[in-house]
Amino acid sequence: MSLTDLPARPGVAQSNARSADSIHSADSIRSAAADLPVPRDVAPPAGPAPLGEHLRSPRLRAAMLVQQAALHAAREYLCGRGFTELLPPLVGPVTDPGGRGAKALDVDYYGHPYKLMTSAILYKQASLRGFPKLFYVAPNVRVEPPETAATGRHLVEFHQIDVEIADASRDDAMDVAAGLLAHVVTRVWESAPSVLRELGREESFFARTRDGMFDTCTHADAVARLREQGHPQSPDAEIDWTGEEALSRQAGRPFFVTDYPKGSRGFYDREDRTRRGVLRNFDLIAHGGYGELASGSERESDYAAIVTRMRESGENPAKYAWYLELAREGIPASAGFGMGVQRLVRFLTGLDALWQVSAYPKLPGTVAP
What we know:
The structure is a single chain. The protein is α+β, with helices and mostly antiparallel strands. Helix content is 31%, strand content 17%. An 8-stranded mixed beta sheet has the order 1-5-6-11-10-9-8-7, with helices on both faces. Strands 2-4-3 form a 3-stranded antiparallel beta sheet, with no helix packed on it.
């Protein structure tokens, strides 16, 4: 596959869209925020009503209409650019070990200890051997720490639009993520404007999202900015929930954070060969306080590098035998990302918590049907 087949972000030449000269400072990210409508600054609601009552809520119906339009638009965008949709696996011998303290659920699979998928990323990489541009709308189960329920941004069950591209760079994946978000926002406003307005949304809030031209800052720049504001963000870890929300509220449009430090993400995020300790990865952060919508990276594809990274992160390579066998035979180099469906719908609807945009919400720490 030629990289020229990949879509450039609107109005940006693919060849130089992510050059060093195009990386903007943190100041440029917040420069457009002042004149935009900002969501209500309130704590997330405590939790959903009993399931039967929740399912009858007019607000949930509105959110599901938006979700339907968003998924239709996402498929339209990706299929129109040569991606193939596959149905993802639900269980496997291993799953993504990352997740900021979240745990996988164990299942007995004919006497073998399998896991429910927290992310199907390993299967995405394996699938590139037959499908060089692929995506899933993937269900995921993560047993989040109970304290994450208070963020309004976590559920035990959620879905992702998972995208993977063979022979692609981080910049290519970022261009697809930006184009996908811009297309979804545009199509949803075209197909369901009355629903969005009834939810209190203003089209002007999305004006700088629809062109897909998003700023970029490095993790180091984001950390420095947060520390200047008095937030004790570690330079060696992912940006915490409070810091991420602060950056999100100060922005006037979505933006990317790149170059997370090695050790803060999974073994599959490729290390920059010229800058040791820096990963070739990114987050896409929504403006207005909605936080992370997508995470992605270039992937480690070299067998020896994968094994080394597994050991460095405390993982036992023996658990990943099927994946490492494929890596030894040859997995294509790739880049990709996962965009949270519920987070995307919350961003579109302006609702306060992810459970409000889930038909069957399961909050961390709460047992629910």
